[in-house]
Amino acid sequence: MIAVPISTTTFQTNALNSIEALETALSKTQTQLSTGSKIQTAADDPTGMAQVNELNMQLSASQQYVSNGNLATANLNLETQALTDATNLMQSVRDLAVEANNAALSASQRQDIATQLSQQLQQLVAIGNRTDSNGNYLFGGYASSTQPFAQNGNSVSYGGAGQVSQVQISENQRISAGDTGSSVFMNLPAGNGTFTTAAGAGNTGTASIGPGSVTNPSQWVPDTYTITFSDPTDYTVTDSSGATVTTGTYDGAAGGTIAFNGIQVTVNGSPAAGDTLTVAPAGQTSAFATLSSLVTTLSSTTLSTGQIATQIGQAIEQIDGAINNLGNVSASVGGRLNAVTASQSAAQSRQTGLKTSISNLSSTDYAAATTQLSTEEIALQAAEESYASLAKLSLFNYVS
Amino acid sequence: MADLLSTSVSGLLAFQQALDVTSNNISNAATPGYSVETANFSEAPGQSTGIGFLGSGVDVHSITRNYNEFLAQQVRDSQASYSSSHTLASQAAQVDGMLSDSSTGLTATLQSFINSLQSVASTPTSTSARQALLNQAQALAQQLTSYDSQISQFGSQLETQLSSDVSQVNGITSNIASLNRQIAAESTAGQTPNQLMDQRDQLIDQLSQFVSVHTATESNGSMDVYIGTGQALVTGGNAAKLSTVPGTYNASELGIAISGGGGTPADITSEISGGELGGLLSARSQVLDPARNAIGQVSVAVATIVNQQQQSGMDMTGAQGQPMFSVGGVQVLADTNNTGSASLTVTRGALSALTTDDYKLQNTGGTWQLTDVTTGQSVAMSGDGSLANPFQAAGLSIVTGSGAASGDSFLIQPTAAATGGFAVSLTRPAQIAAASLVQGTTGSSNTGGATVSVASVTDPSAWVSDTYTVTFGAGNAYTVKNSGGTQVASGTYSSGTPISFAGTQLSLSGSPANGDTFTVGPNNPANTGDNGNILAMSDALQASALSGGTASVTGSANSLISQIGVITQQAQSNATAQQTVNQNATTARNNVSGVNLDQEAAKMLQYQQAYQAMAQVIQASNQMFTSLITAIGNG
Fold first, then answer.
1. Which string of DSSP letters, residue by residue, matches B217-286?
2. B554: which chain A residues are within 8 Å (Cβ-Cβ)?
3. Distance between CA atoms of B234 and B381, rounded to whole angstroms?
4. Are B103 and B120 in contact (CB under 8 A)?
5. Residue B1: what pLDDT?
6. Chain A residue with minimal CA distance to B593?
7. B213 and B232 Cβ atoms separated by less than 8 Å
8. Residue B107 distance to chain A (closest CA, Å)
9. Out of B97, B111, B121, closest to residue A41 by CB
10. B19 contacts in A (CB within 8 Å)?
11. Which of A225, A345, B275, B593 is 20 to 30 A from A97 in CA distance terms?
């Protein structure tokens, strides 16, 4: 190695430069240790910073979804309670209807039942108008600030919206935060869902017609059919144009079924000659309408026994339909509650994962940083000591 | 005898002078810019004698400084690179520090804003959730405008530093010129004024902290200094003046001009590289301008997306939503040298085509040419620039008007001024349009199983408020009629594809039957629990709506943060590397030019001993003379 004379200034400057560099490194390590973060600004690790920002956003969004889910759960639990109460109420309405479906009851006994049913109608309206903790109507749909059900006498109308708000419970999952009053109470099938039955208003016999059932849906032609008894045992079925669909005989004592066009209906009691029974395509009804027409039926003093029996039978069929619908909505709400629970527990583990990733990317590795700190300390000490001892050396010390 | 004495005296004098030089070296051991000096001995001319040429002693024929021009230039080059990187790094670090905070930074604020939208969506009738959203919007606006004003502040500090650097450069160059004059005057054959030359070298070193320079030495000893591609800063005894001039487009962004020997100053901004000046100019074009533009893009994106969605919605009072944010427009700056009278009107078009670049629109012989200033690429435009058919390019719509002269040009900054005008324009929680502007209903006598799943306004500008009826015919064919019975659209429905008309979309679930009807009409003001629009707003803000559909708003904000981080990191590591190069170059130069005290001590001893020896020779000469006199006297 060739000895190159190093100027005295260079010796001093170089020594100082290396001490300064070590001090800078030491201060950086110290900052990492004291802040617990190895990324102070994006310049320390641009990719890492971008990842940390992205993960932090995901974490924040995930926490928002969990809180959305909590709100949805609260509302859905209230709805479940309302549905259960409505089901119980409809069950007791059904019990009363069954009790009333007895030809032996007197008009005043039926009136007592009708009075009870009127109160239950009011209770059902009250359930439909229940609110959540913020005063929003559970069954109003979008129109959550407007009372959805209005009762005018025995008639109940729905003023809510046809759609419900959606709640985002995870990055790609939205659920309905409730159900509209129309889907829960209003848009229910009338009769047995396919057709309704009625006994002629001017019937003089006691014959009543049951709600009936469909035996072969492909043969059913929607139309209004009239069953006309020419005498107590013989009947003709005609369609709306008057064309005869079928004819048959009826055994009044045993009761019997009349079947045509893929359906069958059960007829009870004794028809008189000229009595008519009708079968018409089902439209829609509501739980309230079913209840209020039952009240009307039971309060009536003019209806024949055949009409009363027919209407009570139809009401029971419709109450069953309403209870069935409440059950379906409850099941759907339960499914949504499960979805919230599932997404929240997924969110929990995702948040744990995100926090771990954020920590891995941005937190100081204390063991490594501490080791580095002591290495740098030793290096700085060595640099300072060697500088101090070398700086003393000078030929002038020996010139006398 | 006389020869012996005179030879000795020449030695005494020479070693005394050498000791003077050594003493000067030792005294200047710590003087910056000092080059170690050497006394150069040469043998005095000999006298011809019969026995040959007899030496007549020693002369110090010159005192020279140990100096290597190549090493000195290396120090300057590395100094200029280091200053440039260091300046860029410290400017970038300001922006980096401003943007880098993962808990309170821009991405976190944007996410909080989106979360607030979600909170309103979860409880659309809650006034407190709506108020929280307005507060969050305010926080977002404050953060964006604070970033923008901080960048402006960094910018004005940068301009101030630029001006101060220019005046320092002028001070240095005029000193160099005056030293040049003195050096030229005092230099004689072979002898140079070392002290003045040290001073001049040190001034050139200082100059290279401000700007990258190169030098050429003239025969009279003066040194010419050049910058850029050969603009002379100093020629002999004359120094050219640098000055700051307002930018041709943006008067507040200063340029640098040079004026030598009268005449109008020539703009040499693009020629400047290295040193603090180069670093400042890079910081402006690589850090401050792009950061301002990128923040502007975020402002434009948030305002455009949220406002469009607000206008697609119905607020709590039942009215159509009003814009939530105001945002600054496109900034158009005319070249101050324009001779024509045209002024541009530029508006923003499609958000996804909007970039963070600046553009130059130049008229050449009546033809307009658009150039992306950032990339230098020319950009194709459609349209003819008229009001009826504006130029369309880069997400901009440009109306040129008339009166442009050939050679006129304009700088178009699509997003630079956006954040300055970014503010929340809604004041009341009820003004948040959480509900859709329209509602869809399923016909009551429908026989099919289809129901309305979503009815929403997708283009509020195309929406004409009315009740529209969609009627299905055979084979999923449908017609759409307005309330007056006029058909506005028709088509064939395919399951899962929304039906679009009059700026709205209708999505169905289930299969419609022949004869089924659906209506889309103004939403019912009672539908305060409708959150369809606010959910759509949350979706739209997270969708990839920027950069040709490749980046979301939060993604763009995040990539801005990491881009500034990358620039800062690169500048910092360049600065560190250049610092090492500079230290090495300085060491190499100082090993030649610096004072080594041990070396000087050794030389001092050497000269001292030689001086003492010379004195001994004089004494010997005296003794010889005495012995001779004594011998004669005794004889």
1. E-TTS-EEEEETTTEEEEETTEEPEEEEEE-SS-TTSEEEEEE-SSSPPEE-GGG--SHHHHHHHHIIII
2. 57
3. 47
4. no
5. 46
6. A7
7. no
8. 7
9. B97
10. none
11. A225
Please name the member of B29, B111, B531 whose beta carbon is closest to the beta carbon of A8. Answer: B29
Pick from A46, A53, A141: CB nearest B566: A46
Query: Chain B residues with CB inside 8 Å of A39's CB?
Result: 100
- The yes-or-no verdict on residue B190 having pLDDT over 80 is no
With beta carbons under 8 A apart, name residues in chain A contacting B583: 13-14, 17
The two structure tokens encoding residue A68: 């959305």
Q: Which of A17-21, B258-262, B497-501, B522-526 has the lowest mean pLDDT?
A: B258-262
| DSSP label at residue A283 | -
A144/B125 CB distance under 8 A: yes
Question: Looking at the complex, does the CB of residue A43 fall below 8 Å from at least one CB of chain B?
Answer: yes
Residue B334 bridge partners (DSSP): B410
- From chain A, the residues in CB contact with B595 under 8 A are 7-9
Give me the pLDDT at residue A250, please. 84
- Put the strands of the sheet holding B391-393 in their side by side order: B345-348, B396-399, B391-393
Question: Best residue in B590, B599, B600 to probe A by mutation, most A CBs within 10 Å?
Answer: B590
DSSP 8-state code for residue B355: -
Question: Are A272 and A229 within 8 A, CB to CB?
Answer: yes
What does chain B come to in residues? 635
Closest Cβ opposite residue B111 in set A43, A61, A136: A61
Residue B52's contacts (CB-CB under 8 Å, 6 or more residues apart) are none
Q: What is the pTM of this model?
A: 0.85
User: Closest-CA residue in chain A for B584?
Assistant: A14
Q: Under a CB-based contact definition with an 8 Å cutoff, are residues B143 and B414 in contact?
A: no
pLDDT computed for residue B289 by the predictor = 92
The predicted structure's pLDDT at residue B189: 67
* Residue A43: DSSP 8-state: G
Beta bridge partners, A268, equal: A208
Pairwise CB contact (< 8 Å): A177 & B563: no
Say which of B103, B112, B565 has its CB closest to residue A42. Answer: B565
Tell which wins on pLDDT, B196 or A396.
Answer: B196
List chain B residues with CB under 8 Å of A61. Answer: 111, 114-115
Distance CA A117, CA A97 (A): 9
3-state secondary structure labels for all residues of B436-504? ECEEEEECCCCCCCCEEEEEEECCCCCCCCCCEEEEECHHHEEEEECCCCCEEEEEECCCCCCEEECCE
Q: How many residues in total does chain A contain?
A: 400
A64 touching chain B per CB within 8 A? yes
DSSP, residue by residue, A336-356? HHHHHHHHHHHHHHHHHHHHH
- Write out the two tokens for A237: 């079925």
Q: What's the token pair of residue B424? A: 């929340």
Are A115 and A327 in contact by the 8 Å Cβ rule? The answer is no
Q: Which of B92, B121, B565 sits opposite A168 (nearest CB)?
A: B121
Contact between B49 and B610 (Cβ < 8 Å): no
Taking CA–CA distances from B558, the nearest residue in chain A reads A50
Tell me, what amino acid is at A271?
P
Contact B107 A54 (CB under 8 A): yes
Question: In Å, how far are A73, A147, B193 from A140, measured between CA atoms?
Answer: 18, 7, 99
> What integer is the mean pLDDT of B326-353?
90
Q: How many CB atoms lie within 10 A of CB B50?
A: 5
Contact B568 A394 (CB under 8 A): no
User: Could you report the per-residue pLDDT of A306-352, keeping only the tens digit for each?
Assistant: 888 889 999 999 999 999 999 999 999 999 999 999 999 999 999 99
Give per-residue pLDDT as tens, B386-423. 889 999 998 999 998 888 889 899 999 999 999 999 99
